[in-house]
Each structure stands twice: as C-alpha cells, then as structure tokens.
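Follow-up to my earlier ticket, as requested here are the two runs.
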Amino acid sequence: MSLLHAHACKTRNLDRGSEEWKNLPVITCYERGSMPGGVWRECPTDDPLRLKPENKGLQYEDLWLNNPKELIEYYDYTFDEHFHRPTPAYLPRRDVWEYVLSRNNMYGELDNVKYNHTVLNSRYDSESSNFTLTVSDDKTGETKTKSFDRCIFAGGQNGKPYKPEKIMDLLSNFAGRYYHSVEATENFPSDVAGKRVMLIGDSNSAEDLTLRAIKHGVEHVYITSRSGLGDGAQMGSWPEGKVTIAWGVPDKLINENSFQVSWNEETKTTVANIDLVIMCTGYSVNQDMLDEDLRINRSRMGKLSEGWKMGKNYLSADLGEVSHSEFVHTYTQQTDLCRGLLISNPKMMHLVEYSSSVPLWDLELRARILLSYLTGQTPIPTNDEMVQMNQERLDEDMKDPWMRYACDMRYKEACAKLPEDHFFNVASSDGYKLAEYAYYYRWTQLYASEISALNYPVDFGDQEKLSPFADRFLQLAIDSGRVRRTVEQDESGKGCTFRDTMCKSFISLYTCTPSLPLPKYWLELKVEDGKPTRIMNLLDKEENEEIFFTPQRKSTVSSLGANSPESVTFDLEELAYLVEIDLPPPGQHNVAENGTCG
C-alpha cells in the first residue's frame, strides 16, 4: 500500500508527458486476500473460522496498538484529518486498519489491486532479464503466466506462524490445550477465564494477550522470557497481581501439566498446573511463491570487519573491549538485502520493515526508497557497493550496546555477568536511560540519513545533526517504551496498564494535537456485543453506556519527556477543551519549520 501511494503521489506531481513521467513504472499488485490490509484486515464473513490460507494469519478482532499512534502517523494524512477530533494514544486494530486504508487509497491507489489472486511461482530468467509469474485467479480458478521487468515481494513479515520444533515436541504430551498466538481469536475469552495460562515468549503478542487474558478473568498468567528483552518481560507492574515472569525457556514437562523453565544450568523454575499454553513465538516470512534464488535468508548472519573495535561506550568501564563472535546477527538490515534490493539480483526487491516500534513509518520510507530505484532517481548500486554499504552499517550498529547485546552471543554473555543492580539491568536508573537514548538515537540517525537522501517532505536533519522535529520523534520513541517499565498500580485497585499512562511527548508530530487519556481504565473498556472494537464504540462495562470523550477519571501523566521525572495527575475535565479544538484544514498542519508547535 505504501508503494502504491508513493507512486500515486509522484504521478500527480509530474507533468503528463514529461520525461520523468514516462519513466514511471506500471505497477501490477496481486493480493491473495479479498481486501487490502494484510493481517490487520477484517475477517471475511464467509470464513469466520479463518480456515482459508489467506485468512489464517488475521489478527484477533480486539487487538490494540502496543505503541502510541503518534509513532505511525502519516505526514500527509493525520489522525486529526481522519477522526476530526483528538483521540487516545492507543487505538484498537479496527481504527488503525481504517486509518491506513483511508490514507493509502486517497487517489484510488487500491482500486486496481488484483484481489483474490494467488501468486503460485515467481522465477527470474537471466537470458531475458525478466520475471515470470504464475498467478491463480481464485474466483475463476484460471491460472495465467505474465512477464515483468522487476519483482517486489511485499507479503509482510507474518506469513506463517513460527512454531519451534522443540516446543512442539515438548507440548505433544501436555494434557492441556495449546496453540499459537495467531489462533487466540474469538474463543480466547472462554479459553482463559478462570484458567492458568503459560505464554512462551515475551514480546508484543505476549504483552497484549496477557492484558487481554486479565480482562477476561484469567486466574494467572506465566510469561516465559528467553532474553528478558521483550515488552512483556520489561513491564513495570501488571494489574491484579496475576502475572509472573518465568525466566528462561520451557524445556521439560513435569507430570502432564507442569513445566520446567530453564534460564541456565543453575537457574530453573517450575510452572505448575497449566491449563493452556500459547506460543508467542513470532512468525516467519512466507516466501514459498519465490524461487530459491529470489528469497532472503533471514537466519543468515554477518561478520564484522577485520580489526573491528566497538570503541568507548557506557559499558566500557565495566566490560572492557569484548572480543566479538565470528558471526553476528544483523539488526537494522537483512544480510541479503541492501536498502530493499536483493544483493545477488537487485531487480528483485523486498519491501519489509525492520523496526517493530514504528512499522508504518519504516515501510513508508522503504517504499519511497524502492520507488526511487524504479524511477531511476537513485542509481542501482553495484554488488560490491551494496556489500560495502551493508558492512559499514553492521560495523556501526554493533557499536551500540543494546543492538550488540541482541546480535553478538559473546557480548550477551559478557553482559550477563554484570551484577543484578548494575544500571544496565535497572530500568529506573539514569544509566539505563542513557542506554535507551543511545539505542533510539541510532535508529533516528538512520531515518535521518534515508530521509535526506529521498527528499522526503519531513525534516529530520541528518546523521550529524538531528532537526528539532527528529528530536521530538526521538523522545516519543523513547517514551513509548519507557511507559511500560514505569507503569505502577494506583490506589483504585482497578488495574492500571501502560495504555492508561500518558506522556507529555504523546502529541502529534504534525499537528501538535495531544492524545487524550482513555475514558476508563483499559481493563474496564468493552464494546457492545456484535459491534466492532472501535474507539467510538467503547462502553462502560457496568453501565453499558457510551463513554468516549466523557470525563470519567483521573489519568496519570508521566513527565518522561520533561526535565523532571515525577508524574502528575489531572482531571480529564481539564482536557475537555480538546474536544472542541479547532483543527487545521487537511494538509495545513500547524508545525513551524523548527519543529515546534505554532
């Protein structure tokens, strides 16, 4: 969708018949589903059980954002323009899906997509320098072949649920039920009510399903954390005391419904009397339709340059210069790709995001990069140039301790020897905040570099000096993670989640409209049976009345983006003026050139 929108924007801005207009590519888009939106789209009414292959990966109806919406806002279609009023920072899936569709179909970009078409095979002929696609029209059953000059894989990262073989073997003798997180759909409330549940994995799915389970009356949730890096493992507190983090990986079944979870040989815990196991183990990309030589190998590792040194950083005094592993994982790129180009054959392109914190932003930039190659605006690098570009990025990425911790086993082992009270292990410490800042600064630097090369209509500055706009983006990204680690339960006892905490940085980067607090605690929100989970359909659980934009409670507002670390509270009534706020006309966003609000 991002590529089609970028193409439409460029087409509209060119003089018809100009040389640049003539160089625009003709894009044919095949989509196996019956509508746009990938795994975020609606479950079709003719397949409510998600039995068709194209519907197996669809997300559950009541999924919510894990990060504030301000991190996924489009510069040319803001949330103000979509909702015509301020909204909370965290939105349900349905609202996000509708927002993305509205923006990316501004000019009818999605009207000519070939829906209900399955690409059966894509192969490259080196003699003709063309791609041949075999495509099935799933409505008529007709199969055709067609030739193309370029091929772009844009099938997303969630093609197939990843179910580790060792975990599946372990669960084969488990007396209870088990399934992958993607299968936690409409039956989930009855599956978890009054049950003891173990989640394998600690990232976004585990975080969201845990809160969802608490909302639906789970007895207790155990989250197994292999690395301690996932959002679920880093939560400051959980509502109702119903969550326990089990450090390590389940590696042994005890009796028929209890598990041994091992962090290392010395540290093992028992998770007992489990009724349901949910594998929050992520996904693998479905590249089955691509010939082997057109695929990317996501497990392929990289090597740091000969003589590479990490250099001085905030852990140097404690760790010294740790020798690196022979092979390391990559972090901000794929080993086989350079800016979306398959290095072995740059006529093959992959449109994939790298950052889970800002996926729409990431895809937006990568779509523009690919379009610049397709139009000739950016020359295709040589193979050697792409290899060198990737090497330079890997060498630079691994100078950030957080990135290296995730990618270099030797460095991870060295960090594991740091004392428990070391700032690297204490999220509330100043040292940890420095580490956090350095990590997000690296990401923001990379975006600045890409944006400046693309002439993208947002000013991020450059790698040497970020713009004020980029500084606001950086603070927003930092705070989106920090709200988890600092969330605390309040005196109400109603259960506070990170979605109930506001940050002063949670304002639109483009219109400077602040996010509203949720009208009730997130755990208290529901929609009337039969209605979609949409922000305007929120109901009071007890009174069954619509409550959106009605002052109901006090909200904790964290000052994470300000100089003082304390939190403050205010009555939602104090924000009532926001409901009547005069919003700028579409496309006229009140942001000064220096990035401050006008």
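Run two:
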Amino acid sequence: MANVEENDIPGVSETILEELSRGVEVAEVSQTTHHGTFSLLPGEELKLRDLQDPEVECIDPSNDGRIRGQLKLTNYRLFFTAAEGEPHDIDIPIHSIQAIDKRYQSEKSYILEIKCKHFLTVQFTFDKNERKKDLYSTLMKTAFIDDGGRLFAFDFKKKFKENGWEVYNFDSEYKRLGAIKENSKWRVCTINKGFALIDSYPEFFVVPASVSDETVKKTVSFRSKGRVPALSWLHPKNEASITRCSQPCVGIRKHRCEEDETMIAEIRKATTVSTHIHICDCRPAMNAKANMAKGCGYETPRNYENIEFSFGNIENIHSMRDSNNKLRALVTQPEIDETKWFSNLAATQWLSYVQSVLNEAVRVASTIENKRSSVVIHCSDGWDRTSQISSLSMILLDPYYRTLQGFEVLIEKEWLSFGHMFRTRTCHGSKTMTDNYSPIFLQFIDCVWQIGQLYPHSFEFNNNLLLTIAQHLHSCLFGTFLFDCDKQRKEMEVKTKTVSLWSYINTCKTRFLNPLYKEKKECILPVISMRTIRLWKQYWMAYHPYHKFEDPTFDRTMELVGLREKIVGESEEARLKNQAANKNNVEKVRD
C-alpha cells in the first residue's frame, strides 16, 4: 500500500484500510510489497517479525478465481497484498473481525474465512505448514482481546491539529439551550459527581430547578439502573423540553414513587405554554407489560397529573440484530433471484424497523413543535431506543444538530455521555458475538441518512461523514466508541491515551461538508413512508462481490466546495479592497 495523504478521506472503496486510515500520517517504518510501500501507522507494529510473509490465495467470488499474494499481520490490521497484475489489495482492521473460521480443504491445504462486522467476508487458502499455523494463532490472539485497554486505539499515536475531545462541553451546550442562566427553570444536578449514584450517567445533568437533590436521589431508586429523568433539549420559544430516562420499577403490584411523580410534574410545569406532558415509551406495549414481571414496566397514567402516554412500538435489540443478520445474508449473496429482491428485502424487516424509529422521532418532534408539550422519552434501560429517538427528534427540531459541529456534539451528549453501551453493542475484541450485540447506533446513522435524502439542503455535512462514522465504529482506530459510559472512559483515561474521531474529521472538515447546504432554521417534519425509505447501499452493500456503490457525486461535491471557498475568499478580498477605497475617498474629501 502506498503512503497516504493526510487530507485524503475514508470512504467506501475496494480496500478497508483505505477507508479507515486515509488521512492518517504514516510512520517511518515501511516494507516493500508487490505494489510498492507498505507503511505502518504511528503506533502500528508488525507481528511475526521473524517469519517470511506467507504466500496465500484470496478467493475472489466476483470472477470465480483466486488472487495470488502475500499476507502481513500487524497489531491493527491484516493486510493482503495482491501479486503483480492481480486485482486489488485487501486491508482488514483486526478488531472489526467478527469470526475466524479455519477449515481443511484437503490434506495439504486449508481455508481461512474471515467474517467482519461491517458485512465483509473474505477467504484465504493456505498450504499446511508451521509458518501459517503461527499466523492463524497469532491472528486469533491479536484480534480478540478481552482487555479494552489493549485495543489498537491505545497504541495509535497520530497527532492532529484539532482536539476532538474538546468538541462537547457540558456548560456550553446547556447554556446554548438556555437551561443554564440566571432565573432558569432548570439547574445542574451534581449528585452523580464521581459517578457516585448512576454508573451509566454523566457526572452532571440538568433537572428542574424546583426539584431538590433529595427528590432526585429517591427517584434514582425507582428508575431502572437509576437513570432518572434528565434534560436533553429545550425549545427556544415555547420552553417545551425533551427529557430522557429509563423505565419505572413499578412491577406487577404497580408500585408508586411520590418523588418520581413530583419530578415528572415539575418537568411539565417548566413550560407555561402547555398544561400536559407526554410520556413516550419507545417499546411495544406487550414488551413493556412483560417487564412488569421483572419488577419494572411503565408509568400508570392515573398516578401522574396531566400526562399523555403512548407506546412507540419499536422492537428490542434482539429483533434489530436478527433483522440486520438477515440483511447481511441477503446483500452479500453473490447471486440472487432478481424477481424476488424486493420481497426478500422486505422479509428482513430492516427498512420497516428504520421506518418505525423515524416515525416515533417525528411524533416526538411534532408534539414539541406543534402541541408545545414537553416529552419524556424512555425504553427499558434508556440507552438504546431512547438515544435513537431523543437524538433524531433533536435533529428535526434544532438546525444546530444538522451542522457538522452540532452533529458531533449530539453524538457526544446523547450517545456517549448518556451511556449507550458501545463496547457491549459492538463486542469490541470479543471472540463471540453475545446476545447483547446489536447495530443500534448504525441504525441511528441509517436514519440520519434517510432524513438527509429527504432534505438534501438542510444538512451541513455530507454522506461521507456518516460513512466514516459508521466504519470507525468497528475499527478501534480512535477512542471515541470504545467503552460503554463516561465512567469507564474516565477510568481508562481515554481522553489522554487515545485520539478522538472528531480530531481527524475536524482537521479536514472540507471533505465532510455539503456544498448545497442552506440553513433551514425551522423544524423539519418529514412524512415517513415506505415509499421514501431506501436501502443505504453505499454502506450495507459496500462489499458486495459484484457491485460497488461509490458516491458518484463526491468528486463533484469536492469541486463545488473548493469553488465555494474560492468565491467566498474573492468576495471577502473585494469587500476589504472596497472598504479601503471608501476610507481613502473619505479622507480625500476631508482634506
């Protein structure tokens, strides 16, 4: 692989590392391959240094043939270099590997099948010898690591001009929302400082000013995992709010908590426009009722004054995982019955689930914008469907979150600080995909892409940003998505020992900007229909053996971005010249 340029962009291409490490300055160490220089990233080290690179064949389903080449293994990736005259090289970040299957093809050879979390599956054939046995065993030990502190992000030593860890600032964000100010109806709650009460919450969060710390503490014991109602967003005009939490622990006996009821009432009173508050339980009613047998459940409407209650009918993490597995099976098939493509796609239910998530987000946004009522959002534990609906509704309501910086802040606040379990849901370093694995965050990114297709001028960032975020979710190149909550990140010293994804993105912002962007200051409320929901082929079908879904508009977009910057620069130069000329004329008149 040739040396890469610092401002080149990760995108869907024929090799994974080109997607994941373009824009990363290479280290001094390099080796010569068939196609040129194989360059190591800062902190990347070759494994099996004492062995010759084993010659292998890569099975290529696109032409029913085999590609001859060599394999290299580092602490970050498995790199296949195709022989001279053969098709493309292949790079696989080792922590993105989902499973490695070794099976014998004959008495003299075996096949190594590598299945990745982002829908890539590749097969290599080996002759049986000791060198290749060592490669297999070392790959297993390197790819699957139980200790999160040994993931490659902790070895990656690249320095960027921008510090992505400074993107989100709690005080700045809530001041922007108007929650932190003199005579505010809201206040900063500090009872979780040092993560004293709620492991999965940020140290500081915002609650109604009229609610005491004692009331919040009593509510902690009534909400699942202690995740009490906390402010996410505040409408700048009608003061309606979005607050998030987990399910109440009512159980079959339908227990009550006076402090919890008080807290919901004070959230309702924080807006003087509406006399009602809406509680959005993202789950199907049957699932919520089933949780009562486990001591949890949902709010009893008669116990809460002036509330409207609804179920969002969004399925759980297991349904989403099963649906995504079916989607993988469909889109990675080399050949399909073309007459059954749409029916088979519908059978995966993926697009239906995307629609259900978007529908609920629109309903929440409409309740706040049109009914001017505050909304409390929760699911079971409040870190999966809750994060999806709160963040999507905020994108619809607030144009700030449709900017590049605002979108980064949104992810940092609603997903990272409020404890979406990234490591648990992605199984970083795990040899087995547990029942807790689920593509919840990827589904959110898919939903954002869907909205962007309906409102192509309303987002400052482009499709490439979404692709880059989605791919780095599994790469473990950056520290952003490694752990489950702020407490774990602080314990692992992530902000000082790893690099933020936003450091890379903000160092080369131009690559992620939409030249057609025109700020739409008002709320956007799309009509969500299966007629408008589409399969995000650029991500889900990026590794189909026959089809490549590269963005045909990307190069032109970059040209337009460059042209826009040139025009803005020339306009500013002309303005300054005109200003100087006018100043000279005024001085001449005075003389």
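The only thing I checked on run two: DSSP finds 19 helices and 16 strands in the chain. Let me know what else you need.
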